[in-house]
Amino acid sequence: MSFTIHQKLIFAARGRNLRLVEERIAEGADIDYQDPQHGSALIATINNNDVRLVQFLIEKGINVNLQDNRGVVPLEVALHHASDDVVRLLAWSGAKLSSRARSHWKERLRQCLTNS
User: Fold this and answer.
1) Gene3D superfamilies in the record, alphabetically (predicted)?
2) What is the reported pTM?
3) Which of 40, 41, 50, 99 is packed most tightly, with the most Cβ within 10 A?
């Protein structure tokens, strides 16, 4: 099976390989690409709790509010899986919760932002 450059970017992000992520972007990978099976580079990075790589993707212009196929936004994933540092980084970079966000996520976000 062969993979697209966009999928290879997601795999590089999953592997926490910043150098390979940089290479894939330089080769033309869409940093906002969302694969139905493999997710996205940002979500993979959030799930890995990799602050450095989240920061890199933000600096490259990734859309921090792009919903997945279920309507979930990256900040919701971070509130569920990642450290306060990742949550704050996303929020300070313009990430928003969706209108249907769970109340405990809203409370955790408030706590993360007030305890920084």
Assistant:
1) Ankyrin repeat-containing domain (1.25.40.20)
2) 0.93
3) 41
Task: Dump the DSSP string for the chain.
Answer: ----HHHHHHHHHHTT-HHHHHHHHHTT--TT-EETTTEEHHHHHHHTT-HHHHHHHHHTT--TT---TTS--HHHHHHHHS-HHHHHHHHHTT----TT--HHHHHHHHHHHHT-
Report the phi/psi class of residue 30: left, alpha or beta, with left for phi > 0 and alpha for psi in -120 to 50. beta
Q: Which CA distances in Å does 106 have to 78, 83, 95, 98? A: 12, 15, 13, 10
β-bridge pairing 39-40 and 34-35: antiparallel
pLDDT(93) > 90? yes
| The token pair that represents 79 in the structure block | 């509130």
- Contact yes or no for 66/91 (Cβ under 8 A): no
Which tens digits make up the pLDDT trace of 11-26? Answer: 999 999 999 999 999 9
Q: Is the pLDDT of residue 81 over 90?
A: no
Residues 6+ apart with CB under 8 A from 11: 3, 38
